[in-house]
Structure of Erythrocyte membrane protein 1:
Amino acid sequence: DIVRGKDLFLGHQQRKIQLEERLQKMFANIQSTIDQLKGLSIDEVREYWWALNRQEIWKAITCEAGTSDKYFRKTCGGDENTATQASHKCRCGDRDVTIVPTYFDYVPQYLRW
């Protein structure tokens, strides 16, 4: 959400401004080095970068997480005693992380909470 400019940043306003300025500068730099991006807006460059890198970001967040780290809550089962969650961090057991197992990054943030 932060990379795509869609984050509902609820923290300190000055930090939000600083973060956004740094991101704008970073994406302007990417835009200036790739000829295909020169006619796009910064928001379009952000979306382009995210589409190109989301799989690697997912892998970095999930596959390198420790075994005790939790990023999914138990959801399946008839009641709280039979709820289960994805094993082996969804697809990391055999290092086959070819598909990001969620598209929540495209769901508005306020609907995910």
Remarks:
- Residues 65 and 97 are 14 Å apart (CA to CA).
- The mean pLDDT is 72.
- The chain is about 40% helix and 0% strand.
- The chain has one domain: 13-112.
